[in-house]
Amino acid sequence: MDYTPALMTDMYEYTMLDATLRDGAANRKCVFEVFTRRLPEGRRYGVVAGTGRILDMLEDFHLSDEDLRFLADRHIVSRETVKWLENFRFTGTIRGYREGEMFFPNSPILQVEGTFGECTLLETLILSVLNYDSAVASAASRMVTAAKDRPCMDMGGRRTNEAAAVAAARASAVGGFQGTANLMAARRYGLKAIGTAAHCFTLVHDSERDAFASQIASLGRNTTLLVDTYNIEEAVRTAVEVAGPELGGVRIDSGDLAALAQRVRNQLDALGATETTITVTNDLDEYAIAALQTAPVDSYGVGTMLVTGSGAPTCAMVYKLTERENSDGVMQPVAKKSKDKATVPGRKLAYRSYEYNLADCEHVVSGSEEKLAAFRPQDGWKDLLVDYVRDGEIDHTYQGHDAIMAAHEHRAKALAELPITAQSLMKGEPVIPTETTVL
């Protein structure tokens, strides 16, 4: 889908820009913060994902002549604002949690600093990316934990819209998945592509044997054959007869997966195909995967529940102004006092403390720039914030394939540093508390 990132937004971002350009507030320096007030019910942690995609889109965050005509013709902004937007480029600073990092309620996941005019235009785009990608990565992480050392693969492209499918594939890799069926995601992000054949491939041939022979002739003996179109026992026998004991794998996509995997494993071994692997699919989530831990399954293909965040398709993240330049030119912390929606004023620092090499608390420190510069964390506290953009210059370390793989590895390391209850699928409170200090 070809679209302009600068129009992937809500209209009121531009109407606010227009009004503040008229009254002069658009040029006030501001700090905005992305955080969530709560995790999805019962979840112990969340996983940050999507920041690299935001950086990709920030590079293309400008309006074409056609885009500007649309804004003017719809009377969304004035001619003066159109002029201001002609050469728009974000010149501020963005810092936050790195991709693959764990987050909790009130974690300052991302902080955007710049003028009000430029920061407000990024709100909807940032939230739409972080809310979805982090939801998918969080669900993926839970599935990977349930799978133990068996790989999980993304097969969710047909269960969401085409753009979300690519984003979900990337986020699943951050969350610990090891491959995707989506070729656009594989090409764009350098991910491992997986896939062989569907049931229709078997049905279009005159016999299952003909289908298997065709697939093996095309893809080699190391391919994975889908064995539940008709009768699984007959299919496994035919698969080994056609491919020989060197058959790479079989896939089961229906029925009682645990019982079937056990029978198929025993049958494969009896036929001499002791190295042939078993992949299972069919509406898996973290709970179904956990239930298969004792079954002889070698890998999992996950679709619907991955791309929908396994029941939590958003992280309820918000983007709030926490500090702004007042009429005297002085930076001033600000906060909402709305019922159940109050915010903590001031820009933030974020640390994690440890005891016996296990995280025991998230520390959020808020205050003015001067006070934060003078703050000294306790020994052993880990600084959770990295600089993504400094004065408009993007750190490209956090973009592309290598950044995704680094996030993939960081998630595993960060999860291992949490108390083991983080890996429980039982509902509970966040695995560590968050303490907020206002200087």
From TrEMBL:
Enzyme class: ligase
Annotated Nicotinate/nicotinamide phosphoribosyltransferase domain residues: 152-323
Origin superkingdom: Bacteria
Enzyme Commission no: 6.3.4.21
Cellular component GO terms held in the UniProt record: cytosol
Catalytic function, reaction form: 5-phospho-alpha-D-ribose 1-diphosphate + nicotinate + ATP + H2O = nicotinate beta-D-ribonucleotide + ADP + phosphate + diphosphate
GO molecular function: glycosyltransferase activity; nicotinate phosphoribosyltransferase activity
Function statement: Catalyzes the first step in the biosynthesis of NAD from nicotinic acid, the ATP-dependent synthesis of beta-nicotinate D-ribonucleotide from nicotinate and 5-phospho-D-ribose 1-phosphate.
The protein's name: Nicotinate phosphoribosyltransferase
Organism: Bifidobacterium samirii
